[in-house]
Amino acid sequence: MKILLVYPKFPETFWSFKYALQFIKKKAGNPPLGLLTVAGLLPREWEQKLVDLNVTALKEADLKWADFVFISAMAVQKDGVRELIARCKALGKRIVGGGPLFTVSWKDYPEVDHLVLHEAEITLPRFLADLEQGVPQHLYTAGLEEWADLTQTPIPRWDLLAFKNYNAMCLQYSRGCPFNCEFCDITLLYGQRPRTKNREQVLAELESLYNQGWRGGVFMVDDNFIGNKKELKEEILPAMEEWQAERKFPFCFNTQASINLADDEELLKSMVRVGFESVFVGIETPHEESLSECSKVQNKNRDLIASVKKIQRHGLQVQGGFILGFDHDPPTIFERQIEFIQKSGIVTAMVGLLNVLKGTKLYQRMEKEGRILAESRGNNTDQQINYRPKMPWESLLKGYNKVMTTIYAPKYFYQRVKEFLQEYNPPKGRKLHPRLYHLPAFFKALFIIGIWGEERSYFWRLIGWSLFKKPQVFPLAITYTIYGFHFRKVFLEQAEPERVPLTFPDTSPV
Ligand code: SF4
User: Fold this and answer.
1) Ligand 1 site-directed mutation target among 172, 174, 183, 186, most atoms within 8 Å of CB
2) Which of 224, 297, 300 to mutate to test ligand 1, by most ligand atoms within 8 A of the CB atom?
3) Given a cut of 90, is residue 400 above it in pLDDT?
4) Rounded to whole angstroms, how far apart are CA atoms 252 and 102?
5) Which tens digits make up the pLDDT trace of 496-507?
6) Which of 319, 412, 454, 504 has the most CB atoms around its CB within 10 Å?
7) What digits encode the pLDDT tens for the residues 42-57?
């Protein structure tokens, strides 16, 4: 059997880091971990090829070669999926679809021959067994509350991947999140009880990346890395620390976690010792009523800025997610978000408009209230919404633009970078991971931002300050100037007049 695994194209988003990646000559941030894991579940004797359309083109010869084309995608890749399906169908290829997009919206894809939904550890073996018997079905789903045992998950097939195209590799330790935020589809897809891989599996995955020659960044893709704190602190992190130390810290890590990470000093210290450098935290909003509305209980009744600063002081950079468009957002929310972001020193602030993802509790509520206008495009930073907001749409869009143009304006952005770097001290002994491509990236930054950029005066002031006052943060200062360059470009592109405002038939306030 010949299997072609294809990862559809992502649109340019805030998180694509397209303009930042160009500085280091990388084509994508991370590889398609889901497909690589699926590859590990397929019979070893089958021939397999992986094509990630974000780093390479799909040749007709590859399509012709394949007996089956496996596609996995997220909602944001919808357009790429449609294009890919059309190409496969034109050549009469049989398609197997899986992953979050198909799991939630499978009814929209009747042309996909076999929909192998939910977690592949459960449904893929059933499909393979039927295929062997010559009776493959159209639809494979897991039962209600039927979740995969991650201790059975194979090591991703790294041998199918060209490492050089990516900025960081991926590792998944857990699935599921103990919280249940109204807008989030993670508990829908993976449940509320965090399921984890064991210590030996995590070490084996690190070892396999190491043996394939990878050095540098590893993104722990868990939606909430600290879902099972006890196991992390007692087993996983100590084992990772020992593994890293024995090999002189070949990897640095980043991940995603809930804000209660700030409450656990031991966990913070342990993560930093392992080599974690940054963590994405869903802050969402400083407005308490909006936090109640979306059931973000872990963010309520706490000084969110103090929590962020505490994580930063321990040596972790904090990236933050923020949402505008909650029913309880007051007209002052835009100013408050700006003030919060500036004070927190969160340099990478991903501010999005609320989008209602299919299947979520929010979707059910909005549907009952007759407020769903369209299916979400899975991108909450492209200045579009898919529901009727409480606030007039024009005010919401104007406010959103105000937040974005302010926080990424050179003056405010560089102020925030300095606010953060002044307080931040990289942990002693932290290993830098210089690569050959960092040197040209540095000169490119000097040239593109320092000479041609509208932000050049801020750039040189930051460079001067970090070189003379705090040289240990100089590499990070350069990195942030490149991030700022990317964010400004993406925002301006998405704000092109022909792309906004999106006018649904009725975006009048409820
Ligand atoms: S904490 Fe994060 S992953 Fe967990 S339910 Fe909330 S938004 Fe989703």
Assistant:
1) 186
2) 224
3) yes
4) 33
5) 544 444 444 456
6) 319
7) 999 999 999 999 999 9
